[in-house]
Q: What sequence folds into this?
């Protein structure tokens, strides 16, 4: 990634900020954010990307309210139906509404991608990267060697192994919790497979961000304002979270945007292979696996075209939005 944030003490950056906002507005975070947002919304590619993400994620969040049918409602008398008013995208081999299943599948993508990024990239990656870059020495060595261990094996291979070997155990654990608590919705909601998939993704999703954050913190650590804070007696925690963290915020936004797209794609891939989110809750990976086949491609192309188009559009939108954010947020591209 070519994005490199510049410390707020850089005179060239402050001059540009002064020219665009006026000297009095440089320190006003609300005006700075509104200016960045306006610049982003002037880019057609960014607007289209945001629109696609909002539509797909919004459909997933509000799936119980907007889905015309339940994700498991089947009508065996109406199999492979063509698009109509009652079924705008037609039905599948079991008579299930494709539009409804796509909306419910978007909910799965929202849950898995957001949970994986929050727990893996944001919590683990950001925290370990900050600590490694600021502490250096033995702490940095241990964290980076740990990152090398996790990064030395292809993540998809380990994800396959973890999900395949632990899936039944997690399902049994969910059933045991139901027996103990008297709550009989845990397994049917797909919660056990959700936890397993986003836990596996989070386990390996922190490495790249931790390395990126560490490299930026190592550069910012020698900045004059950090030296001044240390001389004033500020604690390490205050320096990390009050001085270093705000100055890598732009980099973090771009990295998290790209991570959401990667997590969504990984979830779909795992489920396509049959070891991700399990039935009865739908996923785009399940829809694609059910739609593959020469006969379906020839006679029922919507079975694979609908989920594949949505997934491709979502991942492409995240990647394009990440590029646009890099241009907008990076002082070198202003």
A:
């Amino acid at each position: 990634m070519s994005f490199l944030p510049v410390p707020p003490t850089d005179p060239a950056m402050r001059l540009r900020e002064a020219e665009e906002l006026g000297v009095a507005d440089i320190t006003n975070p609300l005006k700075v954010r509104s200016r960045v947002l306006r610049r982003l919304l002037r880019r057609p590619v960014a607007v289209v990307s945001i629109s696609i993400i909002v539509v797909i994620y919004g459909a997933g969040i509000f799936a119980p309210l907007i889905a015309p049918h339940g994700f498991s409602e089947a009508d065996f008398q109406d199999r492979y139906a063509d698009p109509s008013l009652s079924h705008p995208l037609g039905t599948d081999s079991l008579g299930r509404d494709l539009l409804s299943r796509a909306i419910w599948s978007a909910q799965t993508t929202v849950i898995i991608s957001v949970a994986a990024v929050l727990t893996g990239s944001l919590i683990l990656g950001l925290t370990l990267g900050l600590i490694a870059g600021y502490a250096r020495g033995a702490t940095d060595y241990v964290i980076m060697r740990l990152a090398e261990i996790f990064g030395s094996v292809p993540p998809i291979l380990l994800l396959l192994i973890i999900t395949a070997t632990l899936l039944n155990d997690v399902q049994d654990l969910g059933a045991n919790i139901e027996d103990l608590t008297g709550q009989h919705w845990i397994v049917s909601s797909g919660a056990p497979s959700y936890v397993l998939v986003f836990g596996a993704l989070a386990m390996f999703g922190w490495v790249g961000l931790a390395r990126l954050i560490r490299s930026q913190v190592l550069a910012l650590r020698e900045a004059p304002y950090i030296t001044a804070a240390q001389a004033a007696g500020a604690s390490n925690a205050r320096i990390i979270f009050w001085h270093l963290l705000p100055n890598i915020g732009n980099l973090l936004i771009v990295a998290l945007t790209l991570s959401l797209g990667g997590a969504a794609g990984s979830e779909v891939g795992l489920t396509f292979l049959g070891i991700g989110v399990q039935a009865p809750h739908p996923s785009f990976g399940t829809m694609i696996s059910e739609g593959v086949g020469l006969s379906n491609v020839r006679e029922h192309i919507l079975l694979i075209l609908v989920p594949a188009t949505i997934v491709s559009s979502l991942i492409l939108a995240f990647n394009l939005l990440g590029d646009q954010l890099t241009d907008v947020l990076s002082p070198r591209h202003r």
About this structure: Residues 17 and 27 are 10 Å apart (CA to CA). The first helix runs from residue 11 to 21. Residues 1-9, 17-27 have pLDDT under 50 and may be disordered.
